[in-house]
Fold each of these.
Amino acid sequence: MAQLTKNITISELIKQISQLFSEADLYYGHGTANELDEAAWAVHHVLDIPFGCPQAIYQEQVPEQAFDAVQKLAVQRIETRKPMAYLTNKMWFADIAFYVDERTLVPRSPLAELIQTDFAPWVDMSRVTSALDLCTGSGCIGLALATYFPEVHVTCSDISKDALDVAAINRKALGLDKRVKLVESDLYQNLETKKFDLIVSNPPYVAQAVVDALPEEYQQEPDLGLASGEDGLKHVEVILREASDYLTEDGVLIVEVGLSEEALCLAHPQLAFIWLEFERGGEGVFMLTAKTLRDYYSKG
Ligand SMILES: C[S@@+](CC[C@H](N)C(=O)[O-])C[C@H]1O[C@@H](n2cnc3c(N)ncnc32)[C@H](O)[C@@H]1O
C-alpha cells in the first residue's frame, strides 16, 4: 500500500486517502458514491469537522495525531472492507446522526427524503397519530419520523433482537423513549397496537442469489438485512397481504422494494401501486392505501 505523506493540509490528506481507496478498488454505496467522498468522510470524522465547514479549514495543517488516526481508519477500511459507518459507528439519516454497528444495516433508504418533505403530497401528516416502522433495523426510519413529527406515536419492530438493541441506543440518544415503542416481531406477528395510520417499511427485498454476488462491503451487513427468498419478494408479499389488518380505515402503506419493483409488478399486475419519485436518488418505493389493499385482497 502506498505511504501517506506527513505534514500536509487537510485537503491534501483527503486527496491522498482518496487515491489509496481508488487503488484498493473499494465498493461504495453505504452513504457515499465514490472514493473522494469516502476519504472526506474519514478525515471529517477523525478531525471532528462538520460537513459544510468554511473552505479555509481545508488549508489547515493536519495535526500528527490526527494524521495517524486517519491513516489507521483508511487502512481498516481497505483491509476489512467494512462500510465506513461501521468503522466510525455513525451514519446520518434525514440529517440525524444514528449510532450503527454490524448488528444493523447501514441506513440509506430514500424514505429519509419522504420524511423530510412531510410525505407530501401522499400523506396528510396532520391526520397521522400512530405509525409503524416494520423491519426497523437501527430504527432510522421510525425514529426520524418521530423526530420530524412530534405528535406521532411510533412503533418500530424487527425480528432481530440485536437490531433492536441498536435501535434502543438511538431511541435513547434522541430522547424518544416515551413516544417510540420497540417490538421484537416476525413482521406483524407480535404487534399489540392493531391499527396504524401509517406503515412504513424498508424490509429485506433482495433475491438470495443476488445477495450472494454482492460486493464484500454488503456481505458485512447482517444476514437478515437483505435477503428475501429466491425472488426477493418473500417479506413484501406478507407485508402487502396483511397490511390492511393493521391500518386504520384511511391508513397508508409505504414500502421500499428497490430493484424488486419489476418482479413485484409482474407478481401483482392488478394491484394499483403508486411508485414514488425522489430528488435525492433512490427508487422502488411504493404507496398503497388501506382501501386499495382491502379491495385487492377482498377484505372489504
Ligand atoms: C433492509 S433492513 C432495513 C433496516 C432499516 N429499516 C433501514 O432502513 O436501515 C431490513 C430489516 O428487516 C429485519 N427483518 C428481517 N426479517 C424480518 C422479519 N421476518 N420480521 C421483521 N423484521 C425482519 C432485519 O433484521 C433488518 O433489520
Note: DSSP finds 13 helices and nine strands in the chain.
Amino acid sequence: MRESDHSGTKPSIIVLGAGISGLSAALALLKRGHDVTLLERGDVGAEASWAGGGILSPLLPWDYGETLSALTLRSMVGYAEWVADVEAQSGRVAEYWRCGMQVMDVAEPDRAIAWCEAHDVTIERRAFQTGEGLWLPGIAQVRNPRLVVALREAVVRLGGVIHTRDAVETVVSRAGHLVAVRTAQATYTADRFILATGAWSGIALPDLAGVPNIRPIRGQILLFRLEPGMLDTILYRKGLYLIPRRDGHVLVGSTVEDAGFDKTIDEATRRRLHSEAAELLPVLAGLDPVQHWAGLRPGSPGNIPVIDRHPHFDNVFVNVGHYRYGVTMAPAAVELLMDLMEDNPPALDPAPYRWQAALERRWTDAL
Ligand SMILES: Cc1cc2nc3c(=O)[nH]c(=O)nc-3n(C[C@H](O)[C@H](O)[C@H](O)COP(=O)(O)OP(=O)(O)OC[C@H]3O[C@@H](n4cnc5c(N)ncnc54)[C@H](O)[C@@H]3O)c2cc1C
C-alpha cells in the first residue's frame, strides 16, 4: 500500500469528493497557496453536479426561508464574476447565461412580488403566450457539466492533484485529529480534510460519522435537441422546468424521488415530463428526447447544507447537503467554508449551517 507524501512546506489538504462542492473548495484553497489533493470514488463531477439543470436560483425563491436565501442570493450576486474567474483559470467556457425565467401559474403572485422586492430580485407581471405569469429577467443559468470540466481544469492547472476511482473507505485518527484516509489503493495523509461527498455524506465510514439528515433524492431529467434560438429563457410551471442551452438543447425536469441510491429511470416519468413540457413548448410534442437520466441530489431538510467543522475532529470540515441548489450555492458555500477554516469573521451567519443545527432539523413528508 502506497502512502502519499505531503512533505512540502504548504499546508496540505485532502478533499473527499470531486463534485462542484469539492472542486470549488479545492480551487479556493489552491488560490490561497495550499497543497490540495482530491479523492473521488468515480469520475470528476459525474454525479449530481453533472446530472443537474444549472439554474442559478431556487425555483420559487419566495417559498424558502431566509437561511436558504442568504446563501443563494449571495451566490447569485457574484456568480458571473466567479464563473469568469474559473474560465480564466481553466481556459474553458462554462456558458453562464442570464437568460431570465418565466414562471407560470403562480399561486400567490402578490406574495412573490413582495418577496422579490424585499430581496432586490427584479420581477414583473407579464402575459405570456402560455398565460399570465411572472418574469424574472435576472435569473441566470450555467451549463453545469461544462462548469465541472472548467473547475477540474482550473484545479489541475493550479497544481491540484485529483485521484479518480479512488473511494475513501476508512480513516485513521488520533485523539480527535484525523491523520489519514484510506482507499483500496493508498493511505493519504494531510494536515486537514474536507468532506464533500454529496448524497453519500450521510453514510458513516468506520470511525467517521455520517453527516446528520443527508440522504439521496433522485431527480430525472429529459434532454431534447432543437434548433438554436427556439427557446431563449427558462420556463417554469408547477414543478416542471425547461432550460434552454445556447446550442439548442433543452432540458426538461425534474422529479423529486426518495428512492435511496437508485438511479433507475422509468418510462412513465419520461412520458409525463414529455407531455407536460409539450404544453409549455408545443414543438416538443413531435420530438423524442435524445437522453434521459437520473441524478442523486444530496438531500437535506429545507435544502440547508452543513458547512462546519466536523464535531469529532479538529481538522475536518464539511461542505455537504446543498440538495436542489448546490450549483447555485457553490460560491457562497465555499466562501463560508474558507472563513471557518481561516477563522475569519464570516460574511454569513454560520449558525444555521452548523452540524448541530442539522441534527435538529427533521425531514417532513414534503420534499
Ligand atoms: C436532476 C437534478 C437537477 C438539479 N438542478 C439544479 C439546478 O438547476 N440548480 C442547482 O443549483 N442545483 C441543481 N441540482 C442540485 C445540484 O446538482 C447538487 O446540489 C450539487 O451538484 C451537489 O454537488 P456535490 O459536489 O455536493 O455533490 P456531487 O456532485 O454528487 O459530488 C459528490 C462526489 O463525492 C463522491 N464521493 C462520495 N463518496 C465518496 C468517497 N467515500 N470517497 C471519494 N469520493 C466520494 C461522489 O462520487 C461524487 O462525485 C440538481 C440536481 C439534480 C440531480
Note: Helices lie at 20-31, 48-51, 66-90, 109-118, 144-157, 267-280, 326-341, 355-360.
